[in-house]
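Hi there,

I know you've been waiting on this one. I reran it after we fixed the sequence typo, so this is the corrected version. Both the input and the resulting structure follow.
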Amino acid sequence: MSAALAGASALPGAAPRREPFRAVAIGTSAGGIDALAALLPCLPTGATLSVFIVVHLPPSVPSLLCDIFRPKCALRVMEAEDKCPVEPGTLYFAPPNYHLLIDPGPQLALSIDPAVHFSRPAIDVLFESAADIYRQYLLGIVLTGASEDGARGLLAVHRAGGAVVVQSPDTAMAPAMPLHAIRRCPEAAVLTLNDIGKLLQEAARGSAG
């Protein structure tokens, strides 16, 4: 394991492991586009991470997230589709009005189950399902947002042995979501966007070998 990855795996909430991260789950809401624009370009060509992202979106408006982020990202950017196998080196956005889950395989699953914290897609749903599949090989990140979605899911990632990170509330456009996540999962590392970007770079280098 590289020195860079060793530093990443030493984060609070991360269980000791011999292998690098395999997946990253990110949740955000208000202010999330700007936060993601600062983070996602940190993932370099050659990274084999699978990245799953929930952004709270209006249910009846087509998502423009893939159009926004494809030009910014070295990884392949896709809107998640039901029953598609998870591919390494790919970044998946949850589509509007569907929960995004990770099923055994691993493969993507979309659900129209009721909204969680008034949101579909919900961050909790993604994090809990990804924790079941990836366990200690998952990095969960809660960014800026104005609800408590993501707090319960981040705790599930921690309990499964994954690494857990929260954007510093002082740097978040909407601090409520990070604050709820910290209260629910005090083991999480609280980092600025700049430091989260460095962590993603370390995790990506480890995933690339």
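Quick highlight: The two ends are 8 Å apart (CA to CA).

Best,
R. S.
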